[in-house]
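Hi team, as promised in this morning's meeting, here are the two structures we talked about. I've kept the exact order from the run log so nobody has to guess. The first one is mostly here for context; it's the second one we should focus on when we meet again. Sequence first, then the predicted structure tokens.
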Amino acid sequence: MLKQRHDSLERRAYGMRYSGRTGGSGWTVVFKSRGRYGDPFGKVGRAVTMDGDFGNLRVVHKDFFLKGVDKKL
């Protein structure tokens, strides 16, 4: 499974959101999908969440709508 997912996201972050996984304090960093799992319409990506101290990182395994970012990078 990891081999299939390799290189399926853009290397640079697309944007960020000023809240963590459950909407509390923290950060969500979003990456656009590409390659085999890419979104042909450019509307979704994948996200990584972390707490306010940039710890407790978690990969979000559901699509994240790119229009939901607070700031494009």
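And here is the second protein, the one for discussion:
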Amino acid sequence: MTSDKRDAGGFLPLVLLAIVVGAFTGLVAGTFRVLLERADHLRLELVTWAHGFGVLGLLLTILCAAAATGLAAYLVRRYSPLARGSGIPEVEATLKGEVPPWGRLLLVVKYIGGLLAIGAGLALGREGPSIQMGANVGHFFGSVARTAGELQKTLIAAGAGSGLAVTFNAPISGAAFVIEELAKRFETRITIATLGASATAVAVARLMIGDAPDLPVPPVQFMAFRDLPLYLVLGVVCGVLGGWYARAILGALALADRFDHIRVEWRAALVGAVVGLIAWYSPGLVGGGDNLTRAALDGTMLGWALLFVFAIRFLLGPASYAAGTPGGIFAPMLVLGAQLGVMLHWAVDAVGIPSSAQPLALAIVGMSAFFTAVVRAPLTGIVLVAELTNSVSVLLPMLAASFTAMAVAEAMKVAPVYDALGERAARRQGQAK
């Protein structure tokens, strides 16, 4: 009885703190998102302007991208090494009690470094920085309220979930991600805190980003049973390529480790220079890739051009992640998944196999299946894509394809990417000691 009273007495402070954490995360992640959108426009305007100066403009574009990326990597190395990459493995390690919470400087480095790196055009997503910054906000207010132990971890998890919710304007996805990936368990307190923080964060952020879904699509027809094999094939394709993508990320990081004798900012500047070169010839190919996902959903990019873009993005994502700057992999994965769905429809149509499946439906399903193959979090993938596109009529094919993709990735013995990144980080930390 005493324990129940103590738990009940701690419930109201938890709810109030979760709302405060959500409000501040909404402000931080919301402004981060808005500024990144402006950085994308600025990058496009810079490239367009630079084209008027020929070779000199090309060199200027490359130099700007290299300088911004190198500066982002320098800030991480100099002031907050835990701010590199997505930050999700670090959040998971903190929730497990394996590493202590981060210093407050991390939020500043993650914010500025993310703007520099993703704004420069690296193929990284804004969700990683937003998740880690949200977790940092949760830790800060937990410390201010003098919480400790599980209560503080709950606030960290709630902040992380609300960061993801703001990133994609998808409040339920934030809670799903915390339960399925970060906490890896269902617990009433964590769920309530995350739901409250996510709802509050999205409400605050929508004052800046609006109320519409990020990737609204026209109504999609329900799956005809005769098209089920096609969605299962899509699941297999996403499972294989998703497994390869996870290995490509780890391979790029291992390659970067071989050049540890070179300062990370110089290595990052080299990646930035390549991104600047690509941006000169095709500005839409670089950056987080929201425009590419939209093009796949709209059907405005087809055939061999789509295959070429897919190949470039498949390589550019891991290279960008290995640069050592802040940035996530969610958004780049959604790009690849949507493109795989459209390419499968194109291939089926080219060989004359009858199907009533819409390319839009396959693109939506491909997003969730590819995400599931890489991260191994099917619930998060399905809910996230459903919220992004405001489409629930393809839930059954998403479930079928995600199940298949997950099974294939498991059969390939590919570890979930965040588990592998966490193990890698732990090994490096142990070697440093």
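Starting points for discussion:
The first helix runs from residue 2 to 50.
The two ends are 46 Å apart (CA to CA).
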